[in-house]
Design a protein that fits this description.
This protein has helices spanning about 25-40, 55-70, 80-95, 110-120, 135-145, 165-170, 195-205, 265-275, 280-295, 295-320, 350-360, 385-400, and strands spanning about 45, 105-110, 130-135, 150-155, 175-180, 210-215, 240-245, 255-260, 335-340, 360-365, 365, 375-380. It is α/β, with parallel strands linked by helices and about 400 residues long. The structure holds pyridoxal-5'-phosphate. The site of pyridoxal-5'-phosphate has 13 residues, from helix 4.
């Protein structure tokens, strides 16, 4: 049995919020796969959210030299000015947005920590937070941990996994404080047009809402470059940008990212960071500065994007070749996931993933882990070798055909 949806029983002398948070399906799946592998089973792991590419050795070299040079003590708690300047340069180069390194940027422990600090800086207990469904489970979980009240906004497959605009209007309450966006999306890869973002920003302005935009997959796109939520006219004053080096530079284990936001938000986030992590390790900040600015490393990022693009094409080619009505495949616009539509099987996505794992040895993540509107879907990661992606997809189709 995969341990996925257990809700913990509230215990009176503990923080009650945690009773509302579900076990991470992705982590649960990884644990199950590790156990199966330990039993000697051959598993095709397509459940991962971690690039299969290594961090470029030149980045590691910079970190190593920085350690040898003595950057092994505390550093500036908001990030070195050098790193904040590199982040500002990256935001201007890639997203066309201008941020002041002195007051509008904070170095963080990856995107997840940037998201945590962002929400902590703006939320008061009981504030409503609008979050599309499906979306990465942490978006809702973190808001709950911080005593926000999460309102899910349906983002159905039938609308390209974007909420219909009416759904935003319907979800709005007098207590709504913020909208959380994540484009390109985990798990769907979808991202909206500039016109859609403009409309959403107008809506946020009219209703005095913050927009918290998680753009960690921003450099992984297969169509026109996605527009950053901060790049819309007049948006900067109400937008909090979350980003990291994890996915774009294959640096998940380095735990380095950033928050870019209005100065008053950064002032709060800085205090929250100081009082929780002190600072990002200085030798990692040095390596991050190099990764963000070195021209050759930007080429490496483009090559990784091309690699994912090749696997995306591979899955599309296989899906045309195998012609399986039970597995509907829509090419993702960005990120490194396919959100396969198996609703025709009328089986829960947890059951499907359990069966595919047990019978075919393929690790996947159930769509329901991302919300109600993910039910009937399974997430397949293409952050794996071409061979594994091909073998895994063929096995999923073969399994579906037998149902
Ligand atoms: C949508 C999304 N945001 C943020 C993160 C966190 O990334 P990191 O903290 O490694 O930057 C992830 C990781 O999978 C993710 O999928």
């Amino acid at each position: 049995m995969i341990y996925l949806f257990d809700t913990l029983t509230p215990v009176m002398n503990l923080n009650q919020q945690f009773a509302l948070i579900r076990q991470s399906a992705t982590v649960a799946m990884s644990d199950r796969i590790i156990a199966l592998k330990a039993d000697g089973k051959n598993i095709v792991g397509l459940q991962v959210g971690d690039p299969d590419f290594g961090t470029h050795p030149a980045i590691a070299e910079v970190a190593f030299k920085a350690m040898q040079a003595g950057l092994t003590h505390y550093g500036p708690s908001n990030g070195t000015l050098e790193l904040r300047k590199a982040i500002a340069a990256k935001l201007l180069r890639d997203e066309g947005v201008t941020y002041d390194p002195a007051s509008e940027i904070l170095a963080t422990h990856g995107g997840i920590h940037a998201y945590y600090l962002a929400l902590q800086s703006i939320l008061n207990p009981g504030d409503d937070v609008l979050i599309p469904d499906p979306s990465w489970a942490t978006h809702a979980n973190m808001a709950i941990m911080l005593r926000g009240n999460v309102i899910r906004v349906p983002a159905p497959a039938e609308n390209g996994f974007l909420p219909f605009f009416d759904s935003w209007l319907k979800a709005l309450t007098p207590q709504t404080k913020a909208i959380v966006l994540n484009y390109p999306s985990n798990p769907t890869g979808a991202y909206p047009s500039k016109a859609y973002l403009q409309k959403l920003q107008d809506f946020a302005k009219q209703n005095n809402l913050w927009i918290v935009s998680d753009e960690v997959y921003g450099s992984l796109f297969y169509e026109d470059r996605p527009t950053s939520a901060g790049a819309i006219d007049g948006a900067k004053e109400r937008t909090l940008l979350i980003n990291s080096l994890s996915k774009s530079y294959a640096m998940t284990g380095w735990r380095v990212g950033f928050l870019a936001a209005p100065a008053e938000v950064i002032a709060n986030a800085w205090k929250a960071g100081q009082n929780s992590i002190t600072c990002v390790a200085p030798f990692i900040q040095k390596a991050a500065t190099f990764a963000l600015t070195d021209p050759a490393i930007q080429v490496v990022t483009s090559k990784m994007r091309a690699g994912y693009g090749r696997r995306r094409d591979l899955v599309m080619r296989l899906s045309h070749e195998l012609e399986c009505d039970k597995v509907k495949v829509v090419p993702p616009q960005g990120a490194f996931y396919f959100f396969l539509d198996l609703r025709a099987l009328k089986m829960s996505s947890v059951e499907m993933c359990e069966k595919i794992l047990e019978e075919e040895g393929v690790g996947l993540v159930p769509g329901s882990a991302f919300g109600e509107y993910g039910e009937g879907f399974i997430r397949l990661s293409i952050a794996a070798s071409d061979e594994d992606v091909e073998a895994g997809f063929r096995k999923i189709v073969a399994w579906a055909e037998r149902q």
